Amino acid sequence: MTERVNLNIPFGCSSQTGLLRHAIRAALFCTVLSAGAVPMFAVAAQDGVTTARQSYNIAAGPLNDVLNQFARQAGITLASTPQQTSGIQSPGLHGEYSTDQALSHLLSASGLTAVSPDGSSYVLQAEASGGTLALPTTDIKGFALGNALGSMAGYNATHSQVATKTSTALRETSQSVSVVTREQMDDQGAQTVSQAMRYTPGVLTNPYGATHRYDYVAMRGFNDGSVDNIYLDGLKSMGDSGTYSSMQVDPYFLERVDILKGPSSVLYGRSSPGGLVALTSKKPLYEAYHQIQATVGTQGQRGMGFDFTGPVDDDKRIAYRLVGLADTSDTQFDHTKEKRFALAPTVSIDFTEDTSLTLQAYLQHDPDGGYHGGMPADGTLHQRNGKRISENFFEGEPGVDGYERDQQSFGYQFEHRFNDVFTARQNFRYLDSQVTNDQVYAYGWTTPTSNELNRYYTGAEEKLHSFIVDNMLQAEFFSGATKHTVLMGADYQRRKTVVDWTSGSLAPINAFDPVYGNSAITYFSPTSYLRRLEQTGVYLQDLIEMDKWRFSLGLRQDWVKTSDENRIAEFGRPEGTEINDKRSKLTGRAGALYLFDNGLAPYVSYSESFNPNSYADSAGNPLSPTDGKQWELGLKYQPPGTDDLYTASLFRIDQENLATKLPQENFYRAVGAVRSQGLELEAHLQLTEQFKVLGSYTFTDIEYSKSMISTLSTATDIIENKGNSPTQAPRHMASVWADYKFDSGALDGLRLGGGVRYVGYSWADAENTMKVPSYTLFDASVGYDLGKVGLKGVDVRLNANNLTNETYVASCASLSYCYLGEERNVAATVSYQF
Predict the structure, then answer these.
(1) 408 sits in which H/E element
(2) Neighbouring-strand partners of residue 797
(3) pLDDT on residue 46
């Protein structure tokens, strides 16, 4: 290891220093801390761990799960690969054993053996004839490090980090967590992160209809119109949800998507009470893998992608991954296009068995951002003058409308294990973004009986710079028979956004017989802002294993600063007027779960969230932060010997100070308090080696528990909506997806998949005077492995979404803005792996 020098760099830097310089200094400072950290408390070493006998009661099941439980209870480091343990069952372990005796029993008849090169850690190796042992050829991750995500087979995942920032079995997590695997994304032909979650309970993935510009996700009834609940590799995406600079990652670059339901501020700071979505990017592999693919589809879709990875050196200590994509489409809306070019280079370096570093970059250029707009309820939910607005209608101007986004992020993930107790991790990312937006949108009919829509213009030039760093020190130790996994962390994030907005009005347009070319804009006064956000948080979590009990306790303290400076005189405020807001918040989480031998695991948990508002009301005053509290009661069931998982959860969330904004307004409103309660059911089944099934059901009862008070520019309105449901919150949702792969006979190599999605009615307005009807959509997939006919490595897949071409309204944010759903789209993908 190279010598590290303490740079004595202060964490709080002057405002005159460039933001990138702040980011580099903060990252260097935290690296010094993580590399040179002194253990905060001592833990006595367990001498004679290989000979001391210990009592175990581990049920039979998949070998990787059984070994995971054993390693945690025995307090050892045990390393393996998913390829070694996949498909192998273990008889479990009951009684008193030494470590060596226990491993011998667990691995009996598996063809594997555990070898200890240093007397304190173990590595699984294949038994070879003549007593020769073959070393694993793929990357090894130890269970005790806390960073392994377990295995993913088909649609089933065994572990997740999203709820605890440590590797925790889904069955042992006392909160509702869903996982979308890479295989599920491929089989279902997901083209956006939102689409990848279409079969996940509690998640409305299309609150704004057929737009693909942002990954909007409404969870457990909460939708604030932002994408602030998206995380990438453990870190918040760091876009600015109050502007057009919201970031997006293409699903082709992802390995999995984890969805955590409910408040989660205790580990992540500011967040939505509905939950968060954690994306895991593709990481380098230590075995060579190369894939290229091409896609063509309806709406003029054309795309190509490549995914190359493998070791760089003979010792397999350095590996790379390079993923790229080029994609274009005409979209379902007239005169609009989507176009994307993206590249993600990644390098992983294993300096030693205890120290690793992954360097990441993500470069994306979106020259065309497609459509993003809504239509009045009158003309979409029901006919106007005997006609309905077409699902292809474009209310803008072909020569004016456009959306261009450039985003670049650079980061790393560093990990060092000091000993069998302490492990330090640090994640860091810097983000730079530029967005240009020109949009002509409709707002209301010109007269009560006309066919013409009023049109307005919004223009934006935005530059965003941000960075975020998360430092973690993890300690795993025993206190008697009780196992503790303690996580101590400190994170810091900073964001600056420069926004220049223009607005105006245009000539109306006939919604049923549009004529374009009236592009003259009458401009209003421009606005210009400098928006800043800074958050510092410290957190402490203890995961406790006491026989069959699993307890989780966590606390976090946050300090958040926001500022909004107008760079030109506006709304009676002189140039340079700055509105500042400082908030601090203590949040907590607690959970308890019990593991029955028959696979049942009931649990109860309490969690909190808060989200400071960087938004201001019509008078320019910052809105109060939103606060969320959730109680959740659930039951998980994993049949012994399988990775199948059934989950049922009852929840209640209370949120205060929710903020919302109408598209034609430049200020936000407080909407009182909201209460959401409901039931979620989910099943991930691998019925046979060939047959996979997903099922989900969601019941959400959400209503305003306090009346909305809206401060307008001229008066204060008190809207008596207590007891009403918010918009874009369907009461019922359900889905089923099944996939079957033939592996013999004349159909060998053929794959068939199909699914159905039901979304119940929702309300089109906060006063609950008009309903958005329910709708049912069908999806299908057909694939074939051409290797079965001699084309080794070639695979073809055909995906169809909304197979019956159902015309529907996805939801309405108000009576003025309803969002048309996606029409049928079909895409064929050919991939070649070599």
Answers:
(1) strand 402-417
(2) 783, 829
(3) 39
Which tokens belong to 242?
Answer: 């109050």
Domain residue extents for the chain: 37-145, 275-833
Helix axes 63-74, 99-106, angle to 10 degrees: 170
Query: Token pair for residue 197?
Result: 């979650």
pLDDT of 43 reads 35
CATH 3.30.450.20 fits 37-145, yes or no: no
Give the per-residue pLDDT at 717.
Answer: 52
Q: How many CA atoms lie within 13 A of 501 on its CB side?
A: 20
User: Cα dihedral sign for 265, 270, 273, 278?
Assistant: negative
Number of Cβ within 10 Å of residue 464's Cβ equals 25
The pLDDT of 65-84, averaged and rounded, is 76
pLDDT of residue 140: 34
Residue 601: the pLDDT is: 97
**Three-class SS of residue 323?**
strand
Q: Kindly report the backbone phi and psi dihedral angles of residue 82, in degrees, each rounded to the nearest multiple of 5, phi listed first.
A: -60, -30
pLDDT digits (tens, 9 = 90+) for 225-283: 667 789 999 999 988 877 899 889 999 999 999 999 999 999 999 988 999 999 999 99
Distance CA 45, CA 720 (A): 64
Q: How many whole angstroms separate alpha carbon 577 and alpha carbon 567?
A: 8
The string of pLDDT tens digits covering residues 784-811 is: 999 999 999 999 999 999 999 999 999 9
Domain 275-833 has CATH 2.60.40.3500: no
Contacts of 91 (CB under 8 A, 6+ apart): 60, 105, 106, 108
Mean pLDDT of 273-295: 94
| Nearest residue to 430 (alpha-carbon basis) of 500, 363, 349, 340 | 363
Tokens of 774: 């329910």
| CA–CA distance, 345 with 359 (Å, rounded to integer) | 8
275-833 has the same fold as 37-145: no
Q: Of residues 614 and 203, which shows the higher confidence score?
A: 203
Nearest to 18 by CA among 500, 432, 357, 462: 432
Return phi, psi of residue 832, to 5°: -130, 120
Which sign, positive or negative, has the C-alpha torsion 70, 75, 79, 81? positive
Residues facing residue 479 across a β-bridge: 482
Helix (H, G, I), strand (E, B) or coil at 252: helix
Residues with Cβ within 8 Å of residue 672, at least 6 apart in sequence: 656, 658, 704, 705, 706, 707, 708, 709, 721, 722
Helix (H, G, I), strand (E, B) or coil at 760: coil
The pLDDT of 436-440, averaged and rounded, is 96
* CB-based contact 295:302 (threshold 8 Å): yes
pLDDT single digits (tens) 14-62? 334 444 444 444 443 444 334 433 333 333 333 444 456 677 778 777 7
